[in-house]
Every structure is written in C-alpha cells, then in structure tokens.
Design a protein that fits this description.
The complex is a heterodimer of chains A (105) and B (189). With 105 residues, chain A is of the alpha+beta class. Helices cover 64% and strands 17% of the residues of chain A. Chain A has a single domain (3-101), classed as Arc Repressor Mutant, subunit A, CATH 1.10.10.10. Chain A has a three-stranded antiparallel sheet. Chain B has two domains: 3-80; 96-188. In chain B, 91% of the residues lie in helices and 0% in strands. The A-B interface holds A 24-27, 29, 39-41, 44-45, 49, 64, 66-69 and B 25, 27-29, 31-32, 34-36, 38-39, 50-51, 55-56, 59-60, 63, 67.
Chain lengths: 105, 189
C-alpha cells in the first residue's frame, strides 16, 4: 500500500480504537495490528499529531507501580472520524467504478 | 540489549530534540517495553521487537524536522530581538574575536612575505651585480670577478627563497582556508 495512504489510514485506525475505549501505547498497537501492521515508531508521531490537533487528550494512571499514559478521544476526534467516513463513501463509489471496468479480475 | 541500554542509547541519539520532547519519547518507549515484559516476553525480546535505537531515532528526527518548523520561526523571532538588544555586548566581543583572528592571519602571513621580499631583494642584487660586473670588468677585473661571485650567490639565494615562498604560501593558503571554514562552521551551528 502507498505509504502516504497508509499513514493517513492508520490515523483513523487509532481513532477508531480509542473511540471504543481509552487505551495506551502497547494496547493500541495490539488492537490496530489486527487490521493493519503498525510499529511503535509509527504510532508515536500519529499520537503526537492527533494530540496537537486536539483529536485526543492524554492522562496518566498508575499501573503496577509505574505510570502509564492513556489516550482519550475528544468530540473533535469523533467528528474527524465521521468526516472521514463520509468522505470515503465517495472513495468507495470510485472504487466500485474502477472495479466495475475490470470485473474479471 | 537490556531496556536500560536501549533507552540510554536512544536518549543519546536524540540530543538535538528539546528536553521535553526527548523525555516524552523515552517514556513512551519505556512504557511499551514494560508492557511487553508484563505480557510475558523477556526483556531482551521486548527490546528486540521495538527495534534499533539508531533507526528509531532517525525516524523521529526526520519527522520532527518536518513538523516543528512553526515553532522554530517563533523562537527565531525571540532570538532576533535578543540579538539586537545584546549587540553592545556580543558586538564588541565579536569585533575583538575578528581582530584577533585577523592579527593571527597577518602574523603567519609575515613568513612568506619575508621570504618573498628576500627573494625579490637578492634577485635584484644578482641582476645589478652581474650587469655591474661587466662594466667593472673594464676597470678592475679582480673586483669584477668578486662582483660576479656575489651575483651568482644572490641568484642561488633568490631561487631558494622563491621555493620557500611558494611552499609556505601554499601551506598557509591551506591552513587559512581550513581555519576559516572551521570558524564559519562554528557560527553556522
């Protein structure tokens, strides 16, 4: 897959995971990996970008005598996901169009 | 590789980041490695899964350079104001530094100038001695032969000092060049 496209999609995968429940680095990687491969070094900039765009916020909670950073989706983040899904309805139309031309593939 | 070594290595690779950014990044990795270990993986394997500090650091530095330009223009403004306000202080210090460097250049360039003028002087003496020797030949042959001798001696000295001048000049051009580039390098940082 085109790396730029993948980067953009990963952002929404992270948002989708957080939309279900608050989560932390390790768990996000695990959940997103079910659908698309993601590494620790890829996740970090995504989280950072989403946080600076205020699509998610962070808080720390103690876990086994150490602090774990949790990420929580904001309303802006939820809207961002909705917008993405709306936009991609058009993309899916185009996808069907492209696919229709080569139905035998 | 242990977690401690990994984190230390990562930290040293990220020196160009701000303190806060670096700490955030380090604690992010520390947390993930600890979560790996908690989920039944050995420390060694956990670190291996996360990747190599060098490539991780390279990735993050590339991304930082792409995204943090807005902040740097704002800080550039502040630095600009400070530069103007601090001019009386750093201006005089800079001037002193520049003059010091200039005098160092002048002192070292004295060497080829000395050998150069020696070459010029002895060459002139050689021409005068040889030409004068011909005229003297008619008046006093003994003196004329001595004059020829002096002329030849001067030619020798002129040739030697010319070589010395060329050699010194070449060396000093190199020295001056590399030193100037080093100075420019310091200011570029």
């Amino acid at each position: 897959m085109d790396s730029q496209l993948k980067k953009g999609l990963l952002e929404f995968c992270v948002i989708a995971v957080l939309d279900k429940s608050d989560s932390y680095g390790y768990q996000i990687i695990k959940d997103v990996s079910e659908c698309i491969t993601i590494s620790e070094s890829t996740l970090y900039p995504i989280l950072k970008r989403l946080e600076s765009s205020q699509y998610l916020e962070t808080y720390s909670r103690e876990h086994n005598n150490r602090l774990r950073k949790y990420y929580r989706i904001t309303d802006a983040g939820r809207n961002y996901r909705k917008e993405f899904l709306e936009d991609w309805k058009d993309v899916m139309k185009i996808y069907d169009f492209i696919k229709g031309e080569n139905e035998n593939d | 590789m242990t977690k401690a070594v990994f984190l230390k290595d990562l930290e040293s690779q990220l020196k160009s980041l701000s303190n806060m950014e670096r700490k955030k990044f380090i604690s992010y990795y520390e947390e993930i490695i600890e979560d790996y270990i908690e989920n039944g993986v050995t420390e060694e394997t956990a670190v291996e899964r996360v990747g190599y500090p060098q490539s991780i650091a390279q990735d993050i530095l590339n991304q930082e350079n792409g995204t943090d330009k807005k902040v740097s223009t704002a800080t550039k403004g502040v630095i600009g104001v400070l530069m103007v306000l601090g001019f009386p202080l750093w201006g005089s210090l800079l001037l002193a530094g520049v003059l010091l460097v200039l005098s160092a250049y002048i002192v070292i360039w004295c060497l080829p100038v000395i050998t150069g003028s020696l070459a010029f002087g002895t060459f002139a003496t050689a021409i005068v001695s040889v030409c004068g020797g011909f005229i003297l030949l008619m008046v006093n042959p003994v003196l004329a032969i001595m004059q020829f001798g002096i002329g030849i001696l001067c030619v020798g000295i002129a040739i030697l000092t010319t070589f010395a001048t060329v050699y010194l000049a070449k060396k000093l051009i190199e020295v001056t060049k590399s030193f100037t580039l080093k100075l420019i390098g310091i200011f570029k940082r």
